[in-house]
Amino acid sequence: MRADDIKGGLAGRILRVDLSTGEIRSDATAPYASQWIGGRAINSRILLDEMRPETRWSDPENLLIFGAGALTGIAPGGSRTSVDTKNVFSGGKGSANVGGHFGPELRYAGYDHLVVSGRADAPVYLWISNDRVEIRDARFLWGKTTYETEALLHDALGDDMVRVACIGPAGERQVLGSLILVDRAKAAGGSGVGCVMGSKNLKAVAVRGTGRLGIARPDAFTDAMATAMRKVKESPTTVPMQEKTLSGVAYVDPHNPSWDLLFVARNGQDDYWEIEKRKQLMNPATGAPRFRRKVLACFNCPAGCMPFSEIDEGAYKGVSGEGFWVNTIMSATMLDIADPEAMITAWLLMNELGLDGDFAAGMSAWAYECFEKGLLTEKDTDGLALRWGNGDALVGLVRKIAYREGVGDLLARGPVEAARQLGGGSDYFAINVKGQPSIEPFRIPKGWGLGVATSPVAGRHLRGSLLGSGRFGPRGSVFEPQTYEDKPGYVFWQALTKEIEDITGICIYVGTWSGAHALEVSDYAALLNGVMGTDVSEAELMRLGKRSRALEKTFNGLHTDMGREDDLPPRRYREEPVKSGPYKGERCEPEKWGRMLDAFYEIQGLDSEGRLRRATLDALDMADEAEKLAEAGKLAE
Q1: What is the pTM of this model?
Q2: Region 235-437: CATH code
Q3: Residue 106: how many CA atoms within 13 Å on its side-chain side?
């Protein structure tokens, strides 16, 4: 479509801030939106066009881009913002996605995207208030936690409705696995986006907007909204998520088979966690759910998934805050920790100090196994007994990682460099995908593992992973988790729907996560057309998802030497089978995984090494990308 075809929905501008020169300017969004709609796709387009392959993540020339989705601030579940940059782990595409109120506020201030370049000489924050954009001194914020930073900015700006995206002490110290936190609980984690922000001496972005987003076809949009709200209300996941906050009772009932699929024990030594430990962690009467006080929601969300917990007894009495996710349980099983108070405390502390939870848990699990094998001792850990199940030690270790103190400085470097420095064969159990720590399962749910291993942003499960049987995948699909043959098509479908959700800014929990239970791609098309005045079809959106994914694959092709070997599961999961439980003996069998990977490549139009083919890009009207790859010797002709 042409830029003139877009009649509504856009805030209208892409804000650009150069921290090195102090230059602030803006471009029109419409020329980008006419081809890429919004959110992550526009971010990817800018990164690919404007970053040289030789640029390192720590260079001032690296871009850090915040991109609100095209329906962010408008549609149900429309709260999401993509944060894109160079990945600190892989050197390829880095991407995180976050909800809350920051993205809508950015759009109400008049900006669909914020592109940050350069590096400030001293700590700064950005203040965005409609047409007023300033780079301000942040020395009074440096060293503060994310919670303190938000509170101090509210005081300094005299407005508690200011929305803040900030880093904590971990990002300031460029811990590789640092996050950007929004609204005290919503984390843009993965890819080291907070580390990049810290490298630019950018402590925070504070935004307040009073503008509006236009609706091109109000009647059509009202109809699409009514359909969307009905589907979310009738979704089989909505009520259990509101009641249990963990996507339903599956994660609370210790006997539910989902435990056997999703949770990895003791740094991948097994894929089965004992029933009694499950009960201790998640029993509604005595486990983590007993500390839940309420369930909160992001902007304009009709579902709500964010538990607010408060510990009112014991050693951690007084700890409170938002956030106890499925990932929290995944982290607990990786560390064999069944203590609910310690896990709530550690998880909230990660948010407060600005650490990505998956990174902190993955590096801690590696350290626990190093301790078990005698490669680390209490002398190395300043007295922390890193024994499986020790939740108190985890709380202490999280602080050390965030502040790079003692052994924390080693862990802050990430799994590849930490294992290289420690030696002793520790690289074997430094579980990572493309350099990024992984707490994900591979051996049992093959579709989940395939999505994680092939993620364009290095081992994150939201880029296509599918878990189990029956309710997962496209509406009406049924498959078994441990098989190989039927996974590629489902995983690619899930990857494309996530592309579209990050383009539109719709949250997966009202969308297609683990199956089309609520909103579907047809609903996104109807909402977009009502808002923007366009006539985009479901098929055209799926094609856009393919084009958006191809942008990321092109970026990785130009900026890295990643290939087929990088799309394999961690070595432990190929060599060691599951040791106990109903799936005992399962592993990632190299020959079968190879056939599954071949099929996945073929569906995407890649060659056997995972490289984009010219014919694939030509069919997507991406001839320029094909030429760039060809010139770099990275195109499959």
Answers
A1: 0.96
A2: 1.10.569.10
A3: 33
